[in-house]
Design goal:
By secondary structure, the protein is α+β, with helices and mostly antiparallel strands. The chain contains four helices and 16 strands.
Length: 268
């Protein structure tokens, strides 16, 4: 990103990378104007204008004083990214080395490693087809106090996988996670951690028709009310909150441009 004055005075950063932490999320959207309106109304985000290195508009989204995401309009020729989606970026110690390990393990490269103003990034498509970014920040990673769970912020990241055990091995090899299986009412769940901090999860894909995907969870006070708001703003509810779905604490929705996201209850 370039062309914006970035005020990070309300945020704290680490001197060393927080390996395995999702440190940024980009919305790659087919309609930047519609996406801006939707997320402003849904989460109360404000936006600082910026540009990509090739000069395209790029919006920096804030929740209060904290930057939470970026938004950029979809490039029609971007390999492997053919529709609106949320794209998480995971912190790694060396982007190029992680890309090499990923391709050796069966992944393909959607965006080759490149330097941006704030760090070096790449985007890969894992061997099941799920898209994820890799990042090494030049300014440090936002620490866990800066990214603490709150309404309007990213609160969790989760892979829906057709082969969870194989996916866990892939991300252990590529990123350096440790993986632990836990029992939940909905079945087996794999927690991905690094240095004893839980950073992401893997869940068996509940639908054979749905492609494997990384899901980004956003904090809301009331998932059902938030889902109704999504519909009023032109989005679509895929799964309403129900006792069978994490005890009614979440809803799965799309924004008006088709990007999938999860609304997750957080304490206020």
């Amino acid at each position: 990103m370039s062309g914006a004055t970035i005020d990070t005075s309300a945020m704290s950063f680490t001197s060393e990378p927080l390996i395995g932490k999702v440190i940024w999320n980009d919305l790659i959207t087919e309609d930047l104007k519609a996406a801006r309106r939707f997320y402003s109304e849904l989460f109360g985000w404000t936006f600082d204008p910026s540009t990509t290195p090739d000069g395209r508009p790029y919006l920096l989204a804030r929740s209060g004083p904290v930057y939470v995401a970026g938004m950029v309009e979809l490039e029609s020729d971007t390999a492997g990214i053919t529709e609106s989606r949320w794209l998480p970026y995971v912190s790694v110690s060396d982007v190029d080395a992680s890309v090499s390990r990923a391709t050796a393990a069966g992944a393909t490269v959607a965006v080759a490693a490149k330097d941006l103003r704030v760090g070096r990034v790449a985007v890969i498509i894992d061997r099941e087809g799920a898209v994820i970014g890799l990042a090494r920040s030049h300014i440090g990673d936002p620490d866990d106090s800066t990214t603490a769970k709150a309404i309007g912020r990213v609160v969790w990241t989760e892979l829906l996988s057709n082969a969870p055990l194989s996916a866990a091995q892939f991300y252990r090899d590529v990123i350096g996670y440790t993986a632990q299986s836990v029992k939940r009412a909905s079945g087996e769940y794999i927690v991905l951690s690094h240095q004893e901090r839980d950073r992401a999860g893997i869940l068996k894909n509940p639908s054979e028709q749905a492609a494997p995907v990384w899901l980004t969870y956003f904090g809301v006070e009331d998932p059902r009310m938030a889902a109704r708001r999504v519909e009023a703003l032109g989005g679509r509810v895929i799964l309403w909150p129900s006792p069978q779905l994490r005890h009614g604490t979440m809803a799965v929705v799309t924004d008006p441009t088709g990007a999938l996201l999860v609304l997750s209850e957080v304490d206020t």
